[in-house]
Design goal:
By secondary structure, the protein is an alpha+beta fold. The protein has one domain (about 30-125). Helix content is about 30%, strand content about 25%. The protein has two helices and six strands. The radius of gyration is 22 Å and the shape is elongated. The termini are far apart.
Length: about 130
């Protein structure tokens, strides 16, 4: 009888441990890319990044996040009428953003602040880092 209880206890413990591992994998972030995207999805990504810049308009490539999980954005330089830098040099930092997959969600991360936003109606594919 004691052996039967021990077996049942072991089975319960194994089940709890296994379910905990399954939950952990759904909560992990994996770098991701997009298999394809519509114009509306690109606009959604641009809006999230624009909001992080305080509403400044952001223009991204049509294939953003399709070949890489990271995109880097530099602020446009101020040029004079002859195309020369007004300040003489460019010393502004670049900003990077990473697309992640977490379970079934696609998350866009502002790498500078660590903030993450869930993107609606996007299908991400986890990539190996």
């Amino acid at each position: 009888m004691q052996k039967h209880r021990l077996t049942r206890l072991w089975a319960c413990v194994s089940l709890v441990v296994a379910s905990g591992c399954a939950q952990t994998s759904d909560n992990e972030l994996y770098p991701a890319t997009l298999s394809a995207q519509t114009k509306q999805q690109k606009v959604q990504i641009e809006k999230v990044i624009s909001d992080w810049f305080g509403g400044t308009k952001v223009t991204l490539a049509d294939d953003v996040f399709t070949s890489s999980s990271v995109v880097t954005i530099e602020r446009r330089e101020h040029l004079d009428s002859q195309g020369r830098l007004i300040e003489g040099r460019h010393d502004k930092q670049a900003y990077s953003f990473t697309l992640y997959k977490k379970g079934t969600q696609c998350l866009l991360s502002n790498d500078g602040t660590g903030k993450k936003v869930e993107l609606d109606n996007l299908e991400c594919i986890a990539t190996e880092n």
